[in-house]
Design goal:
Helix content is 54%, strand content 14%. With 356 residues, it is an alpha+beta fold.
């Protein structure tokens, strides 16, 4: 069996990369990190149909598969693009479609790029002692930490029972507090609920699981793109930087560093592709594969980020080089929707190796 991308998927990847090359340069990312918005990038991605990827055709979308979303996520990670892709284009459509409810109007707005949906799942995955989400009837109280994105029009909120609720960002009882994280390419908030109107989307934990699974695969793909870019930058720098009148890439120690990064990273692409494929075609393997993919990419990316910085002579936190944006993107992705230790524990429970 030969497993690879189709011609349509390759075209999708090339078109997204071409747009991001022109519109999400390092200088543009720096401006976002300094406070500018992401509307121009999101508008361009909307023209390419990115928000509509997972929205069914009946609701105005394209109706593609999770693997296609993973391909786009890898492109976005490689360019550290500041976009609401994960919540609006991946997790929200998955939850809305899987719930089986009548969400045609909202899905159509998502596909058109006119409605952004943030996600607040931290309290259902691994909540802190001082944070919880409580729903009484149709009113929500409590708070969620590390919700994204900060500029969403509505939020998909998961409570401790893994029930999903949709709230409006304009609700007078909702307070958004911007949080400072290591990753300046995405903005996160703390959501505080005080008698907020909440529409219950689903009480089925399978809907929650499916939404988290595709989110984890998308994050893994984003991490893959970021790590690959750091490797590419390290190799290019090793070809140009000279020491003792010769490129440092000619030194055996530097060769070994670059070779080990490539050797660890290259199999990850197949792993991400298979995880995306499993979400649509292999439901019995999907959750375990998503967990392992998320955890493994986090570990490999940590090694690549560290080693690529060493190849650059440790210049990982100087803004002139810009490596720190990719470095921190990998670090933030490591924690989103569960750190490696947590998702491996979850995979072990699914396989019956340990008890929950």
């Amino acid at each position: 069996m030969q497993f690879g991308l189709s011609e349509e998927q390759i075209l999708l990847r090339d078109n997204v990369n071409r747009f991001l090359d022109d519109n999400s340069s390092l200088d543009r990312v720096r401006r976002y990190a300094d406070g500018s918005d992401d509307t121009d990038i999101w508008a361009g991605l909307t023209e390419l149909g990115v928000p509509a990827l997972l929205v069914p055709e009946d609701q105005g979308g394209i109706g593609l598969a999770p693997l296609d979303a993973a391909i786009v996520a890898e492109c976005l990670g490689a360019h550290i693009a500041p976009t609401p892709f994960l919540g609006t284009a991946v997790m929200a459509p998955t939850a809305l479609v899987a719930s089986g409810g009548d969400h045609d109007a909202l899905l159509a707005d998502i596909a058109a790029g006119t409605h952004r949906v943030g996600v607040a799942f931290s309290e259902a995955i691994k909540r802190r002692n001082d944070a919880r989400v409580e729903v009484r009837g149709e009113r929500m109280y409590g708070k969620s930490l590390f919700a994204f994105d900060a500029d969403a029009d509505s939020y998909l909120v998961a409570d401790q029972q893994k029930h999903l609720h949709l709230i409006s960002a304009s609700d007078p009882g909702l307070k958004r507090t911007h949080l400072t994280t290591v990753d300046k390419t995405r903005r996160t908030v703390e959501l505080t609920y005080d008698n907020v109107e909440a529409q219950c989307i689903s009480t089925d934990t399978k809907v929650f699981d499916a939404t988290v699974d595709i989110g984890r695969v998308a994050i893994a793909a984003d991490t893959l793109g970021a790590a690959q870019n750091m490797l590419d930058q390290a190799v290019e720098y090793a070809k140009q930087r000279e020491q003792f009148n010769r490129p440092i890439g000619s030194f055996q120690a530097v060769k070994h560093m670059c070779a080990e990064m490539a050797a660890q990273l290259e199999p990850c692409r197949s792993m991400v592709w298979f995880a995306g494929h499993a979400l649509a075609e292999l439901p019995d393997e999907a959750r375990i594969t998503a967990c392992h993919t998320k955890a493994h990419l986090a570990e490999v990316a940590q090694f690549v980020a560290k080693t690529a910085t060493e190849v650059h002579g440790g210049m990982g936190f100087t803004d002139l080089v810009g490596l720190h944006y990719w470095f921190k993107r990998c670090g933030a992705n490591r924690q989103w929707l569960g750190a490696p230790e947590f998702v491996r524990q979850e995979a072990a429970v699914l396989q019956g190796l340990v008890t929950d």
